[in-house]
Amino acid sequence: MNLQIKPINYSLNHQINLLHSVTRKNSGLEYIEVKVLELKEATEMEEINPDLELCLVALTGKITVLTPGNTFEHLGTRQTVFDKIPTDSVYVGIGEKIKIIAESDCRLLFAYAPTKKKLPTTRIKHASSSIEQRGKYQNQRLVQNILTDQDTISDKLLVVEVYTNGGNFSSYPPHKHDQNALPNESLLEETYYHEIDPQQGFVFQRVYTDDRLIDQAMAVENKDIVLVPKGYHPVGVPDGYTSYYLNVMAGPEKKWVFHDDPAHSWILERK
User: Fold this and answer.
1) CA dihedral (64, 154, 248, 86) positive or negative
2) Where do the coiled-coil regions begin and end (predicted)?
3) 176-202 as b/e: b if 16+ CB within 10 A
4) 3-state secondary structure of 38
5) How many domains does the chain have?
6) What is the pTM of this model?
7) Residue 126 binned pLDDT confidence (cut-offs 50, 70, 90)
């Protein structure tokens, strides 16, 4: 199974560029789909998903989102994800038709999860994103939460943005969440959408399981996606570069309970 996906840069028309289309059919994932699009200013598009809830994230630029009962204008706060400020998102319930209008050139990430529960379409304002500084020593990163396991906005989806400076590791010490064994561990698939500043850089990501039936180490470049169907998934950032990634997680239950790799958990006990 290839866990690293390069951007396809497929022009749907002269106004819309498709960077990624990760589906349950082409990825082997069961609980997550992801799409990344770049839209030119004044572009309009529509979609409806009868069995998928959606979190639409305005990565860069500004958009308006219309549904039969809502108008959300001027969504988006950033020219680049490396502005390091939270952005606006929209949660869209199953069966809800949406229309997206690009107020400027923009890049959008669509995070999907299958569900049978219809929840109301909701604007997720940038000001509602909780911000955390995690880790110490060379294990430091800035976290901006969009959808967490504590909110009731979505049924299955968790969405979070993470910044890691050069010389640091993230998603570290290595941890996993691939066992449906609550309250000790939850089963959540995960995807990483990566951007890197400067964009010619790369980061390293390893995905591995205890039995090593999955064990891939990847040099991940700008706008790549990494799939984490199971296993541990640390990220290392070379000196001189800044890492951004957006995580999408989903599983049978919306709970994030992880298990550290016991070979490396001692790192947390350093003083």
Assistant:
1) positive
2) none
3) bbbeeeeeebbbbbbbbbbbbbeeebb
4) strand
5) 1
6) 0.97
7) very high
